[in-house]
Amino acid sequence: MCDIVVGGQFGDEGKGKIISYLCLKDNYDIIARGGVGPNAGHTIVYNGTEYKVRQVPSGFLNKNTKLYVGAGVLINPDVFLDEISKFNEFNVKERIKVDFQCGIIEETHKVRDKGDENLSKKVQTTGSGCGPANEDRIKRIGKTAKDIPALNEFLSDVAMEINNAMDEGKKILIEGTQGFGLSLYHGTYPYVTTKDTTASAMLSDVGVGPKCVNDVIVVLKVYTTRVGNGLFWNETDKNKKSDNKADKLLNDLKISEKLAKIKEWGAVTGRERRVAPFDFELAKRSAKINSATMLALTNIDRLFDCAGVRKFTDLPEDAKKFIKIIENEVGVKVKIISTGREYSETIDLR
Ligand code: IMP
Ligand code: MG
């Protein structure tokens, strides 16, 4: 059986932090990365050092864990090999495998991504070449990992390796990338990425069937951010806010004033992220369509005075109130709460 972690908003919910915590705490045998490709950047902080991964699974901190990249994922060989050499101290090279059918991003894909005005100016893509590489993949003219000599030593039948491991009772975590609002099918089309981003898509990316799933953990930041163009859900209907009970409660907690002070930059693009209040409609929808079994909330220390808190009872009353509002509105329990960037700054209610 496996567990899945996915983003419930527009990417950058803090999946890297949650996954690195889970991988160290729960000692997964395998962590397998799904999603689009190196357009996603996950940030992990371990003993004060920051690591950014765009290809390597976020569970690399645990040296006992095998690291897999699923067939659905695009690989940029330069980015992949560079990351492996950067994380040498963690023996990533000895533990990582990519599916022989992973799609490949070539230099021309990046040129097309940046040169196409619809992509670079309208959609404001990450410019990492993922869209054009998927375009070629769909046309059945793209390269795959087995065509690239530099990837030869990392090739594997990832889908069968994972399924065989599940048969042996091993613990598997599937790492999702991007977020629900960026899904090609369910997100804010046309301001989306080039694949579905739900839990079902992550299963398909790594080659696991729907009956092999234990938990689906949907990660939500306690406010909403977005890099690139496209509306936030709660920008589409200005009147919605005043009618919504939960939004009113956010007003009481003076969330907007706190949000005005928050500044964030994209892990891949370095672009400033737009910031908006927590969107209950989006959270409800993504919890439903992902069939969430639990929620993980991140960045709560940015709204409330609770940096590094590890016990629920030590949270400020307003933070507890806020968590209850989210649970009630979304209808799914909050089981993990992140109170800081370091992997261990986590409240675990499981
Ligand atoms: P693309 O995936 O590079 O084609 O970009 C399409 C849209 O998705 C742009 O708005 C990107 O900023 C956004 N996007 C893609 N991947 C991520 C991610 O991992 N985090 C945040 N935004 C992303
Ligand atoms: Mg990111």
Based on the model shown, name its key terms.
350 residues, alpha/beta, binds magnesium ion, 31% helix, binds inosinic acid, two-stranded antiparallel sheet, 10-stranded mixed sheet, 16 strands, Adenylosuccinate Synthetase, Chain A, domain 1, 13 helices
Total separate domains: 1
**Which small-molecule ligands are present, each listed once?**
inosinic acid, magnesium ion
The separation of the N and C termini measures 18 Å
Gyration radius over CA:
19 Å
**Roughly what is the average pLDDT, rounded to an integer?**
94
CATH topology: Adenylosuccinate Synthetase, Chain A, domain 1
Number of helices: 13
The strand order across the widest sheet is 9-7-5-2-10-1-11-14-15-16
> Which outline best applies?
globular
Note the main sheet: 10 strands, mixed
Order of helices and strands: EHEEEEEHHEEHHHEHEHEEHHHEHEHEE
Q: Specify the CATH homologous superfamily.
A: Adenylosuccinate Synthetase, subunit A, domain 1
> How does CATH name the architecture?
3-Layer(aba) Sandwich
What structural category arises from helix and sheet content?
alpha/beta
User: Segments where pLDDT lies below 50 for 5+ residues?
Assistant: none
What is the class in the CATH system? Answer: Alpha Beta
Percent of sequence in beta strands: 15-25%
